[in-house]
Amino acid sequence: MTEPILFKKYANRCLYNMSESQYVTLDDMSKLIRDGNDVKVIDAKTKEDVTSFILTQIILEEARNKNILLPVPFLHFVLRNGDNLLPQYLENNFKQFIRGFDIFTR
Questions:
Q1: Which three-class secondary structure string do you get for 35-93?
Q2: 51 Cβ contact partners less than 8 Å away, ≥ 6 residues apart
Q3: 10, 17 contact by CB (below 8 A)
Q4: Is residue 105 pLDDT above 90, yes or no?
């Protein structure tokens, strides 16, 4: 597995691709991910990992642009359990899903 492409997020919402030395848009980052790359986004000021926030922002922007929304029961589940088991639960289930999906794409 290759290292993720590192980005810095600045206070003005600009994203900077460290490996290409250029600013990118959320659409640019989405294309990189669709092309099979992993990304990691670090806040330039706090050095905090904000990858999850940025990826969520990409998903919400794409959903808004395509008028595709997440299922209401799922959104209720997220809001009810977000601080508790949600991150670990989703991560474990998605890892299983991806492993199963990889079998069919090989």
A1: CCCCEEEEECCCCCECHHHHHHHHHHHHHHHHCCCCCHHHHHHHHHHCCCCHHHHHHHH
A2: 39, 40, 41
A3: no
A4: no
Per cent of the chain over pLDDT 70 is 86
Rounded Cα–Cα distance for residues 54 and 44 (Å) = 14
Does residue 13 come out as left (phi exceeding 0), alpha (psi in the -120 to 50 range) or beta?
A: left
Residue of 11 and 79 predicted with greater confidence: 11
- Find out whether 18 and 3 touch, Cβ atoms under 8 Å: no
Return the axis-axis angle of helices 51-66 and 26-34, rounded to nearest 10°: 100
Structure confidence at residue 1 (pLDDT): 58
Choose from 18-22, 58-62, 72-76 the range with maximum mean pLDDT. Answer: 18-22
Starting at the edge strand that comes first in sequence, how are the strands of the sheet with 15-17 ordered? 22-24, 15-17, 5-9, 39-43
- Please state, in angstroms and rounded to a whole number, the distance separating the CA atoms of residues 105 and 103: 6
